Amino acid sequence: MPENTAAGGATIELENLTKRYPGNPAPSVDNVSMEIGAGETVIFVGPSGCGKSTTLKMINRLIEPTSGRIRINGEDVTDIDPVKLRRKVGYAIQSAGLFPHMTVAQNIGLVPKMVGWSKSRIRDRVEELLDLVGLDPGEFHGRYPRQLSGGQQQRVGVARALAADPPVLLMDEPFGAVDPITRDHLQDELIRLQNELHKTIVFVTHDFDEAIKLGDRIAVLRERSHIAQFDTPEAILTNPADDFVSGFVGAGAALKRLNLTRVRDVEITDYPTVTVDDPLQDIFDKLRRSGTNEILLLDKRGRPYKWLRRGDLMRAKGSLARAGTLVHDTVTREATLRDALEAVLTDNAGRVAVTGRRGEYTGVVDMETLMNSVHELLEADRLDAIGHQHELEEAREELTHTEQEGHEGEAKA
Amino acid sequence: MNFWEYLGSRHQQLLADAGQHASAVFQCMVVATVLGVLIGVVTYRTEWGGNLATTATSTILTIPSLAMIGLLVPIVGLGVPPTVIALTLYGLLPVVRNSIVGLRGVDPALVDAATGIGMSRLSRLVRVELPLAWPPILTGIRVSTQMLMGIAAIAAYASGPGLGNEIFRGIASLGSKNALNQVLAGTLGIIVLALLFDAAYVLIGRLTIPRGIRA
């Protein structure tokens, strides 16, 4: 029942998709087969000219495949009216591609209008979408694209792509033309959106870091869109299939891996804590009983305030006002391990307090726990990747087999 | 009789001629615009099509207007028909050329986006390409109109309507006391009309070019 799943994602199957241009003996996209699950974010990443954009554009048939089939939610869309197909598939491109002669609202409402929604429904939908992409509807509704910054334009572009609530969203280097800080924001926004909407997203980029950040799975493509590796970011980072992939992953794969895990996913040690309201004597006792050299002092709202050492307490002389060192850096449970590592490295005692949503203390990570977690992660990834690689190799063997068969057949004919 | 006295005594005749002149130019411009944009829409996609249309229309423009009207008279007779045909043909070139340039100048990424979000070829043309190409097309129409104002005067040679009659009458009676006044009245009348039309185009531009792409 496609209608019911429309709000969420849809599966996409590409089967032996090939594109040849006249006058060029080698195909631009050669025999790509791929299955994308509903609600999954898949990133096509590869060097310029590897055919990743062409492959993407074949999914909504902006470029008609020479051969092969495309199925969306099991329905073969290779031969249906392309206009009908594209209305079920959102499309966002670099520099947003907003129509400069239309207002933001008109741009977003274009597809719903074409599908025949009523005026009031379109108006509500536009407001909802502007809200969703983080733009104030009242303020941006009537603006023209040239009155927006690059990042805002891109948000509107995404809103337009989502307008008719398509199950599939194709994004062709959408954040390629904005500055790094805005790009970072937009990526975060996309992650947030995807957590709410669960669309099936196919995203093209040449930036591997972007791919790691956004993708559930990444397809690393080499020339003619041959799939070098199609796996989770973790698996690609820890176990690249070949030199091409590892070259593309670039240096510092282990560091990049840290970006994929949040502090909440690793072991957080509990630390003895006291609050500023506790009498001095209790603090002494607690420190003595804990057997550690240090205790964390929390402020009235339970937020980390100061690190207190034994020596500090000796010199405190009845008041905590001047004792101890202020906590100047904390990480949230949502922070990446990379952020945590940075904080631990810059901290003079090699540990950092972890805080919850409202800044309240939840634990501490230090160098040792961090290293243990990372080792465990890498080991798990490696095992996963080896498993996937076997599957891929099997698939590839099958492919070469059929290819050779095909060539023999041609030779005979 | 000086010029002002001449204007005073003949103003009714002059106004009627000016009205006919303006209406002939206006109607021919409407036809030329519709035809020109159509030709542009049909040909802009192909390199040779666009070139053919531009070359054909500019060839027409190289034919001297007097010769063109002279050639048309034996075919369609005197009066309004040769005037309308000649004016429409002359009006085509700037409209056709600017339509092609304008339509080709639409950012390919926008056309791609329009197709990608599911617009049919027709709605893409009507909602995206033509609105974006409209400013250059309007400029073409403006240039055409200025040109036709002058060419329409020649139409009087084939007994066509307009201020040209005044000019030709003056030329025919050179040496008589009103000859200069007639030529002057006709010429100035055409200039005034041209300026009025131009002002109208500025207004049309204000009203029809969307705010988002207004310079």
Description of the molecule:
The complex is a heterodimer of chains A (413) and B (215). By secondary structure, chain A is an alpha/beta fold. Helix content of chain A is 43%, strand content 21%. Chain A has 16 helices and 17 strands. In chain A, helix 4 crosses helix 5. Chain B is an all-alpha fold. Chain B has 8 helices and no strands. In chain B, helix 1 runs antiparallel to helix 2, helix 3 (65-76) crosses helix 4 and helix 6 runs antiparallel to helix 8 (179-208). The longest helix of chain B has 41 residues, at 3-43. Chain B is elongated and about 70 Å long. The mean pLDDT of chain B is 88. Classes of the chains: A alpha/beta (413), B mainly alpha (215). At the A-B interface, helix 3, strand 6 and helix 4 of A face helix 5 and helix 6 of B.
How do the strands and helices of this protein lay out in sequence?
The complex is a heterodimer of chains A (413) and B (215).
Chain A: H1 2-5, E1 12-19, E2 29-36, E3 41-45, H2 52-59, E4 67-72, E5 75-76, H3 82-87, E6 89-93, H4 104-115, H5 119-132, H6 137-140, H7 150-162, E7 168-172, H8 180-197, E8 200-205, H9 208-214, E9 217-221, E10 227-231, H10 233-238, H11 243-249, H12 253-258, E11 273-275, H13 280-290, E12 294-298, E13 304-309, H14 310-316, E14 325-326, E15 330-332, H15 337-346, E16 351-355, E17 361-366, H16 367-412
Parallel strand pairs in A: 3-8, 3-9, 6-7, 7-8, 11-12, 15-16
Antiparallel strand pairs in A: 1-2, 1-4, 4-5, 9-10, 12-13, 13-14, 16-17
Chain B: H1 3-43, H2 47-62, H3 65-76, H4 80-104, H5 108-116, H6 121-154, H7 164-172, H8 179-208
